[in-house]
TrEMBL record:
<dbReference type="InterPro" id="IPR033470">
    <property type="entry name" value="FakA-like_C"/>
</dbReference>
<dbReference type="Pfam" id="PF13684">
    <property type="entry name" value="FakA-like_C"/>
</dbReference>
<dbReference type="InterPro" id="IPR004007">
    <property type="entry name" value="DhaL_dom"/>
</dbReference>
<feature type="domain" description="DhaL">
    <location>
        <begin position="7"/>
        <end position="198"/>
    </location>
</feature>
<dbReference type="GO" id="GO:0004371">
    <property type="term" value="F:glycerone kinase activity"/>
</dbReference>
<dbReference type="InterPro" id="IPR036117">
    <property type="entry name" value="DhaL_dom_sf"/>
</dbReference>
<protein>
    <recommendedName>
        <fullName>DhaL domain-containing protein</fullName>
    </recommendedName>
</protein>
<dbReference type="InterPro" id="IPR050270">
    <property type="entry name" value="DegV_domain_contain"/>
</dbReference>
<dbReference type="Pfam" id="PF21645">
    <property type="entry name" value="FakA-like_M"/>
</dbReference>
<dbReference type="Pfam" id="PF02734">
    <property type="entry name" value="Dak2"/>
</dbReference>
<dbReference type="InterPro" id="IPR048394">
    <property type="entry name" value="FakA-like_M"/>
</dbReference>
<dbReference type="GO" id="GO:0006071">
    <property type="term" value="P:glycerol metabolic process"/>
</dbReference>
<dbReference type="InterPro" id="IPR019986">
    <property type="entry name" value="YloV-like"/>
</dbReference>
């Protein structure tokens, strides 16, 4: 066979997906070091399976329809760093094949070259020793691949080149070598190509409902590691309008400033991005300015990494563990310092799911786990976790904001009996005074009050209390409503990322001049939407 028809390309692709699925668990296992950015085998499989769904929906098996289905399906199915890059490999591959009714050996080889250019272009800082290296090896061996008498020989050479690329990855990435593994993404690309070869060899049956792995994985040296960036964040956005080059560059630079492992590209008015960051909320807010969210996926890599490491190092269960929801990086640090074992990112505009909370609870190596939802909209999801987790006791402390959580954790006694500690936490929440300050985003009515856009809105103990354009006046009105303010001793202010220097100065001078007996402590919280979160004890 020296030519492939559109219909054959369809089943060739699907056979590649099938072969990857057979080895999905093996690929996942390779990816536990240094950081589990999701699961590479699962993510690559998701990418190809969506491509297969698009192919199965094509009724008219013309070449342009098949090529478009592969291109768009892999884009929409892309998950994880490896999945996103794989979708770009197939984007470049299909770009080259546009307009062709039959595919020759030379077409296939040069499509690899196009795939390499597009994939490297989507990654801000290409890293060798990855799936990028594997596609580069193919692109650099075009002449060798073209010199094939038929597609059987061609794919034998493709596998030979990819096998060398896979084996070379540990020499390019020190962490792979230390862990004793090859790169998972590169190995995944090898298995896809192996599926192509199997189809050319005559294996025409395709089963995409595979759940087992076909070969054992050698022992991997899993090493605990401190992560610079905690959240693997992926978005698909439908752009409101065509992005100008300078706007596209601005967005690309923004991603690089707040994280690493950046993959960013625009395809047919669809923006796809992947970034490791500590502030996924800011990524969402930034890209909402240019388009409408189609898909959002955020994974806590620290939680995943600790989960894998815990499999290697059995630890004795402690008596008490704590899970808390946090809306900001600084707040997360405060909560960790107060003994929280697992942080779940979330808050006012992004409520974590029951599954997110359950994963956090299950990852804590403790007999009893206390969950602090820190938002009234998250309490129900937390209670559902308590009903589903069976191997440990789960206590949901109904904290409605971060301040209540901090007040409770200050009184934490790790060796206390859980039932008694639960009461201590609830008592602390009842006793603390909390203030949350934000700004109105539009004109509205709230509890019979006419609210003007940009007014300060102040919630006292979670209830709407004061609104005013003047920040100092708003503070005065709020503190006047605290009946026992003279009996309080400490004011703790958690400063959000939107707080201005002027506002901070007004707040600090207000406390020092009007309430000099109160000791003021301030911390950088990094939370969005609320410039000030305050607790008074």
């Amino acid at each position: 066979m020296d030519k492939i028809t559109a219909k054959e390309l369809k089943y060739l692709f699907m056979k590649g997906a099938e072969n990857l699925l057979k080895h999905k668990d093996e690929i996942n296992a390779l990816n536990v070091f240094p950081v589990p950015d999701g699961d590479t085998g699962s993510n690559m499989s998701s990418t190809l399976l969506e491509g297969c769904k698009y192919l199965e929906s094509v009724e008219d098996e013309r070449a342009d329809k098949i090529i478009e289905a592969i291109r768009n399906g892999t884009l929409m199915g892309a998950r994880g760093n490896s999945g996103v890059i794989l979708s770009q490999i197939f984007r470049g591959f299909t770009d080259y094949l546009k307009g062709k009714t039959e595919i020759t050996i030379e077409d296939f080889a040069y499509a690899f070259k196009s795939a390499k250019e597009v994939a490297y272009g989507a990654v801000m800082k290409p890293v060798e020793g990855t799936i990028l290296t594997a596609i580069r090896y193919l692109a650099e061996n075009v002449d060798y691949l073209i010199d094939s008498s038929d597609f059987k020989e061609f794919f034998e050479k493709v596998l030979e080149v990819l096998d060398k690329a896979v084996k070379d990855t540990p020499s390019m990435l020190k962490k792979l070598k230390e862990a004793g593994v090859v790169d998972a993404g590169a190995k995944g690309l090898y298995y896809i190509a192996e599926g192509f070869y199997k189809y050319i060899q005559g294996e025409k049956e395709i089963d995409l409902n595979i759940k087992t792995t076909t070969m054992p994985v050698e022992e991997i040296n899993i090493i605990p590691e401190d992560l610079k960036f905690q959240y693997c964040t992926e978005l698909i956005i439908k752009a409101y309008e065509t992005l100008e080059a300078d706007k596209e560059e601005e967005l690309r630079n923004f991603l690089y400033e707040i994280g690493d492992s950046v993959v960013f590209f625009v395809q047919d008015s669809v923006i796809k991005l992947h970034v490791h960051t500590n502030n996924p909320g800011s990524v969402i807010e930034k890209f909402l300015t240019v388009g409408e969210l189609m898909k959002v996926k955020i994974d806590n890599m620290k939680m995943q990494h600790e989960h894998f490491v815990s499999k290697e190092v059995e630890q004795e269960k402690k008596k008490i563990g704590i899970v808390a929801v946090s809306p900001g990086e600084g707040i997360s640090r405060i909560l960790k310092d107060l003994g929280v074992d697992q942080i779940v990112f979330g808050g006012q505009t992004m409520n974590p799911s029951t599954a997110d909370l359950k994963a956090a609870v299950e990852s804590v190596n403790a007999e009893n786990v206390f969950v602090f939802p820190n938002n009234s909209n998250i309490i129900l999801a937390a209670k559902q976790v308590a009903e589903t987790v069976k191997d440990k006791a789960v206590y949901v402390v109904e904290s409605k904001n971060v301040q209540e959580c901090i007040a409770a954790l200050i009184r934490n006694i790790p060796d206390e009996e859980p039932e008694k500690l639960f009461e201590v936490f609830k008592e602390a929440i009842l006793e603390v005074v909390t203030i949350s300050i934000t700004r109105a985003v539009r004109n509205a009515k709230l509890k019979g009050e006419k609210i003007k856009k940009d007014e300060y809105l102040i919630f006292l103990n979670n209830d709407f209390s004061v609104h005013d354009m003047d920040f100092r006046i708003a503070l005065e009105k709020t503190f006047e409503k605290i009946e026992d303010i003279e009996d309080r001793e400490i004011v703790t202010a958690i400063i959000g990322k939107d707080a201005t220097a002027v506002e901070i100065d007004i707040f600090e001078s207000f406390i020092s001049n009007i309430y000099p007996d109160l000791e003021l402590e301030t911390y950088e919280g990094g939370q969005a939407h609320y410039p000030f979160l305050i607790l008074i004890e």
